[in-house]
Amino acid sequence: MKLLITGGAGFIGSNFIHYILKEYPSYRIVNLDALTYAGNLENLKEAENNPKYKFVKGNICDEKLVNELMKDIDIVVHFAAESHVDRSILNSGDFIKTNINGTHTLLEAAKNTGGKRFHHISTDEVYGSLGKNDPAFNEKTPYDPRSPYSASKASSDHLARAYFHTYNLPVTISNCSNNYGPYQFPEKLMPLFITNLMEGKKVPVYGTGENVRDWLFVEDHCRAIDKIIHQGKIGETYCVGGDCEKTNLEITREILKMMGKGEEAIEYVKDRPGHDKRYAIDFSKIKNELGWEPKISFEEGIKKTIEWYKNNQNWWRSIKSGNYKNYYKKQYGK
Ligand code: NAD
Ligand code: TYD
């Protein structure tokens, strides 16, 4: 089996590549990644010398390149995206290009090369924002995206589904809740807070910190994708979640406690515009049909995550200083 993984130098994509190389040592992987600010080849140091793994620097919007790569693969697992809500609020152009046009380019190439199996990675944010007592999102929840990020992801989901219905492209989609774990870029809540505290800085909580997210350890997400690409039903969507709803303040206090810091390390800052109140996922479909459920508890996951950032300070310090961008040059001489 030969996989084309897009966005494999990012957080979830790199975890997925490590996961596949470990669980399926006979599989071959081509990782297509543009190395935007969020792409970091240091995430894949251990895979670099594996003959089953190949890195291609390139953009998913590059039709010629994508068509060429697509010829020789069995399945696309599509992670590449602009993924940070705050950046989408400041400047959404790249979100439209990558998340919508890039996904379209990949779908076209998959269609034109014999109808390649295509798994599209998406987010629970496409479903909008829940009130306190609303039932959790499931596969039938109407789309209601509210940020440029989630609107662009929703568009890409619609395109993926349209290619299944119109062209019989063998597509599956997963909509997952907030991930956390190793290799997450330190602009997202957990890694930003953990690394700020290690640097003796404060942690910026938006608004009053009452917004709720459902947290899933990244390895559990990788296992869910594994299930879907091997056993998922073509044309179907699967909601993936952690059964772990927490307010941002609860997360913050847990991190503070585990890192021996007090409330004085919190800085309440201006709220995110249009800040979605609550996300929650009902993952009974993937549980009942594919036998997936999260294995790693929040307590275990957060402990592993904090330990990882403590043991990999060069990794995040070089991101925060900007030096990580030299790694590609050093390794590939370009
Ligand atoms: P990330 O920002 O860490 O990584 C994105 C990767 O895509 C980077 O390596 C980047 O270089 C690459 N990329 C961006 N634009 C590209 C382009 N035009 N061509 C080729 N490569 C490009 O993102 P992540 O957190 O790993 O998220 C991966 C996927 O999972 C995204 O589709 C995201 O929407 C989805 N998702 C993320 C979460 C989460 O909590 N992080 C939750 C649910 C779904
Ligand atoms: P984030 O990690 O950006 O993920 P998403 O917005 O995709 O859910 O943010 C998670 C939650 O944490 C979200 O409610 C916004 C909040 N947040 C803060 O309070 N402070 C921060 O510095 C960041 C990055 C996020």
* Number of DSSP-assigned strands: 12
Radius of gyration, CA atoms, in whole angstroms: 19 Å
Helical stretch count?
A: 12
- What is the total number of structural domains? 1
Approximate shape: globular
CATH superfamily: NAD(P)-binding Rossmann-like Domain
Q: Helical percent range?
A: 40-55%
Strand content: 15-25%
Structural class given helices, strands, pairing? alpha/beta
- Which ligands, by name, code or SMILES, are bound? nicotinamide-adenine-dinucleotide, thymidine-5'-diphosphate
The CATH topology is given as: Rossmann fold
Low-confidence stretches: none
Rounded mean pLDDT is 97
In whole angstroms, how far apart are the ends? Answer: 30 Å
CATH-scheme architecture: 3-Layer(aba) Sandwich
| Major pleated sheet | 7 strands, parallel
The main sheet orders its strands as 3-2-1-4-5-6-10
CATH class category name: Alpha Beta
